[in-house]
Amino acid sequence: MKKYLSILIALIVLGIIAALALAYAPFKPSGANEVLPADWKAEAGRGEYVMRAGDCFACHTAKGGEPFAGGRGIESPMGTIWASNITPDKETGIGNWTLEQFRTAMVDGVGGHGQQLYPAMPYENYRFMKEGDIRALFDYLQTEVAPVKNEVQATSLSFPFNMRFGIRAWNWLALSGQADFKPMAGDDQQIRGQYLVEGAGHCAACHSPRTPLMAQNGTTVSDANFLTGGMVDGWNAPALRGKDARVQTWPASEIAAYLGAGRNAHAVANGEMALVVEHSMQYMSDADLNAMAVFLKSMDGQSVQAVSAQVATPGPHSMPPLPADEAGQATAKLLTSASPDMSLGARLYLDNCAACHFVSGKGAAEIFPELQGNAMVLGKDASPLISVILKGASSPATDRRPMHLVMQGYADRLTDDEVAQLASFLRKGWGNQASQVSARDVAKVRQKVQSLAAH
């Protein structure tokens, strides 16, 4: 017994020593990953373009607040993390930061005052950005953004997540490899798409699963779980890779249209993705949107059809509704019959949904998304689907598609049991195969929706 106690004490002592080493050992920041001339200066507009590609505005701007002045609450499994002020204000922003400090924050997750940043800041992905883009972004924030004095409330998480020195250990496990971009074997377009997806676009932050330590389980194309699906702030981030990736059935031109316009012949962006389109992707060039789409389609060696130079071609064009396919014919026939004997879920669909999404479940291209094979409808967690039924959804207007689309909510119209019946019908109709939804599931989501609306 005394022997085991001695071993336990020794392990505790070793643990304390390791913790102290992590807390006080000198930190060595990553250096620049490319050598630039001493007189290098970013070309006009590059810094703002990098900001859009990195979606900095969305996270660092509070609702109704000044641009980049911080204060937006970002929900995480550990609690609310408050985005910092990144304007050049010298007291509350980054006005006193050096380029080296900014780079260290971007690629190592250590702020200008030496504090460990919470990984709500996607430095796991930004570390793959080239030095030129990081410098261009820094110059933009320092010289083109107005300074705003805004003292953001401190992030206060519960123990042990409030102990920031522990993030050093987390970084040691999560940040694999050097802070540099490793191009795949492909042409210039594929490599450009890879660079944007892995780096500034930080797609893996949402679309890769998480490890038990909440690190991204796949940050580059060489990782098996890269972009195989995740969850963010209560929304399913669907798989973009693998056999369950619905997006892999779309042509590259439709992927590019979805990224740049928030809609295509199959889907309409909602939730967190709608914000990405609104604040980031719609500002990307056609060439970069096509590059991202081609990379996503070809990252595992698939062949890709040529894409048109212009994404989401403007102007009137005919998009007749699609008939039900073989998998969806039985459901379409049931709904067309409008039999009084049909299930409650089917009747609720006819009453509330069929006018837009049609009996075929195919919806209207670029307006009402298809429900057959829809990633949100089929998600393992039905909460996002329930949430949309209760409170509705909104898709932003973009330059490529200026119509603002809104779906009404049904929280005041349908009971918990009725929403459960409707959601279950959607998850089983037209050949869909997903689990049933219970009234208890709906009640939980309704409570959350009401709580968020109250605040």
Automatic annotation (TrEMBL):
The keyword Heme applies. Keywords: Cell membrane, Heme, Iron, Membrane, Metal-binding, Repeat, Signal. Gene3D superfamilies: Cytochrome c-like domain. Residues 42-145, 188-300, 340-430 form the Cytochrome c domain. It is found in: Cell membrane. Its main location: membrane. This is Cytochrome c. It comes from Comamonas avium.
